[in-house]
Design brief:
The chain has three helices and ten strands; from the N terminus they run E-E-E-H-H-H-E-E-E-E-E-E-E. It is α/β, with parallel strands linked by helices. Strands 2-4-3 form a three-stranded mixed β-sheet. A three-stranded antiparallel β-sheet has the order 7-6-8, with no helix packed on it. It is globular, with a radius of gyration of 17 Å. The chain starts with 8 loop residues before the first strand and ends in an 18-residue tail after the last strand.
């Protein structure tokens, strides 16, 4: 069976936290955390925090209502698992984009965006190369797909993660912290 290619999901802003940790009771630190994708966080925020219905939220994320419903059901199941089993929650990754300027690195072939519009982008967020170009809207499909992102715990800088690359191989370009 051939898997269907996932489309990009629009996210208004990044979550203010990178995870959540339970306290009290019998916490088992050796258990793996529940991984929430950024688009799942966005679906939960739009429905439960902003009180939008599925149709309105799906339009904001630029996806179909049925896709939104699947994402929303997934995040609710993951949250229930985290609460019942006392697991930590980690928010990362996903196939997302923002309403901001996108760039393409010709050296490492990654795509990244500029969330902070007041800062000019002069180098690649992943490899630091100055061989970058600004992308036009709707041109992302012509470039190598980036499906996950790493965020610096110290300064919040975001870099695109390439397939097959371990998280420990990424270092923040701003503060040199291992991601």
């Amino acid at each position: 069976m051939r898997l269907r290619r996932r489309n990009w999901r629009k996210v208004i802003e990044m979550p203010p936290i990178s995870g959540f940790m339970p306290f009290g009771g019998q916490i088992k630190p050796q258990t793996e955390p529940v991984l929430l994708l950024v688009e799942e966080y966005e679906a939960l925020k739009l429905c439960d925090y902003d009180s939008l219905n599925h149709h309105q939220a799906a339009e904001l994320m630029n996806i179909s209502r049925s896709t939104f419903t699947r994402i929303y059901m997934s995040v609710r199941q993951k949250l229930a698992k985290a609460f019942v089993e006392g697991r930590t929650i980690s928010i990362e990754g996903g196939k997302i984009y923002f309403d901001s300027n996108w760039y393409y690195c010709k050296s490492c072939k990654c795509q990244f965006n500029n969330q902070n519009q007041s800062v000019e982008i002069t180098q690649c967020a992943l490899c630091g190369s100055k061989n970058i170009e600004a992308l036009k809207e709707n041109s992302q499909s012509d470039i190598q797909e980036v499906t996950e992102y790493c965020y610096c715990i110290r300064c919040g800088h975001k870099i695109a993660k390439r397939r097959g690359q371990l998280r420990s191989q990424n270092v923040c370009a701003n503060c040199n912290t291992e991601l």
